[in-house]
Amino acid sequence: MITCFIRYEIDPAKKDQFIRYAWNWGTIIPRCGADLIGYFAPHEGSSTVAYGVYNVASLAEYEAYRMRLDADPASQENFAFAKDEQFVLREDRLFLKKASAPHAPKVKR
């Protein structure tokens, strides 16, 4: 299992648009095959950083998920909304594996 962390830099004046965008992913992402952990909007501290987090079984499954996402009409509509409203200023993806007990496989010392 790998976890995809998406770090967004958003326009702080358009936080409500980001929240709508995030809300929409709540049904789209699971339907397309990833295990959505959640989207997180600014609350306290930085007003420009937000996150989306979900799990996939492998990078190969991620590629298949992305193909389903690209073909999904609601996904296309949500991407178009983000492009039209321009509230996402930057988006970075990072793939990580759990390394802590008790969830990660035990490693030899």
Question: What's the quick description here?
Answer:
This protein is α+β, with helices and mostly antiparallel strands and 109 residues long. The chain is 40% helix and 29% strand. It has a single domain (2-96), classed as Alpha-Beta Plaits.
Can you walk through the features of this model?
The chain is of the alpha+beta class and 109 residues long. The protein has 3 helices and 4 strands, in the order βαββααβ. The chain has helices at 15-32, 59-71, 73-85, and strands at residues 2-10, 35-40, 49-56, 88-96. It has a 4-stranded antiparallel beta sheet. A hairpin with an 8-residue loop joins strand 2 and strand 3.
Distance between the termini: 22 Å
| Rounded Rg | 15 Å
CATH topology: Alpha-Beta Plaits
Shape: globular
Question: Residue ranges: pLDDT <50 for 5 or more in a row?
Answer: none
Helical fraction equals: 40-55%
Task: Specify the CATH architecture.
Answer: 2-Layer Sandwich
Largest sheet: 4 strands, antiparallel
CATH domain class name: Alpha Beta
Note the beta-strand portion: 25-35%
Q: What is the count of DSSP helices, taking H or I runs of 4+ residues?
A: 3
Architecture blueprint of SSEs:
Blueprint lengths: L1 E9 L4 H18 L2 E6 L8 E8 L2 H13 L1 H13 L2 E9 L13
Antiparallel strand pairs: 1-3, 1-4, 2-3
